[in-house]
Specification:
Blueprint: H1 3-12, H2 19-30, H3 35-65, E1 69-74, E2 79-82, H4 84-89, H5 112-121, E3 132-139, E4 145-157, E5 160-169, H6 171-241, H7 250-260, H8 263-295, E6 303-305, H9 307-317, H10 319-322, E7 327-331, E8 339-341, H11 343-364, E9 372-380, E10 383-390, H12 420-431, E11 435-441, E12 445-453
Parallel strand pairs: 7-9
Antiparallel strand pairs: 1-2, 1-5, 3-4, 4-5, 6-8, 9-10, 10-12, 11-12
Helix pairs in contact: 1-3, 2-3, 6-8, 8-9, 9-11, 11-12
Amino acid sequence: MNKKEQDEKVLLGDQVADTEGDELLVAAREIDVSDEVREQYLALMTEQQNRHRETTERLKTILDSIVEGILIVDNVGTIQDHNKSASKILHDTEGHLLGSNVDRMFIDRKSTSRNKLLNRCINIRSGALQYDYTETMARRLDGDSFPMEITLSPANFTGEMSYLYIFRDITQRKEAEKAHKRLEGELREALKLEAIGHLAGGIAHEINTPSQYIRDNLKFLNDGYGALSRIVGLALHTLWTHQKDLPDGAFRQFVQKMRDSDVEFLLDEIPHATQQSLDGINQVAQIVLSMKEFSHPSGAEKTATDINRVLSNVAVISRNEWKHCANLIEEYDQEIPHIPCHVNELNQVFLNLIVNASQAIQSAGRPAEEGEVKIKTAFLDDSILVSISDNGTGISKENRSKVFNPFFTTKDVGKGTGQGLSITHDIVQKRHGGRVWFETEEGKGTTFFVLLPGEDRVGGEDKA
């Protein structure tokens, strides 16, 4: 085979079988020129075709490496070509995209999204073609749906109007946006709770002053009542003893007045009433003190803390959660030492556990007199072990491994975010170097254990 035939084979081979090249070769053969000129021409054509092939392959490689899917769609909606990302995003493993209608990728059966894109893509007033962008729901070839970001732009191929559909799967972005919104909501709730905490501390301080003088006045009345009742009794005895020395009917009239005033009843009931009032105001004072300590902001450093007192305060604060469904039993080891901790964070831990215990008892449907929440402390190997038990529903086997997962909850919508135990886990283990675990039996109840080290195993804020 001579060089001329080789050059023609290269140009006419499978890799360079385009119509324009064939026509040029035919024209070259018909021109009456010397072989040398024809060979130079064919060599030039070969080089040009090679450059064209390289450019085409490079462009194809670039288009196939783009993460966005690209579809070339004709004026009636038929897919004429696409890149690899389009096949990947739409799960086209059998090559079904080519020749199919582009409407199949839109969820809305009436092709509303596509029609809106097309209508907006053409500026009716000026007749100028423009780009347009939207987000919509799309469907893969296997029926799976996904959120899609799509740009539609006009394209002119070989004199015919077509459209470029450039799209991407934005599932991860949408999930991230949802997570971000959820975190923003939780942050707002946290800030609101923090504000309520500061407000509660201020209210507690305001309540404390009138409570103090009410308690003092009640104690004064209670103590003074004893002296007055003794004087009244002595007066009655004296009148009874010397009734003959009194004017006629004076003693009888006095006794009648006493009966009309129900003095005997008052003498019996006033001590009970003042004592009940004292008990009530003492309870208010205890709640106020617990609220002040509960809402008092702690510093960045851990402080030596009486865990028994923390638990006692939380029990008072959470009374409204358990008083209608259970009896609260407190068994504190009075010999446990003070330990370094972040008080506010442990307040949150124990409040979460007591509230959860109360709700578990409510879910079990037990009568209030049968419900029981038990709080215990003990000193164990230089650590303090806190246990909070309930006789509620228990935790099912399939949920036990998920208990400390963020956002996991078995509560009804609006009754829980699934963050309480996750936060508890982080506070105990990451912030305090302790451990938290549970023992449970379905239908009988659950016990959560919190083991807090007697020494600082984590350190300050930087190590948390």
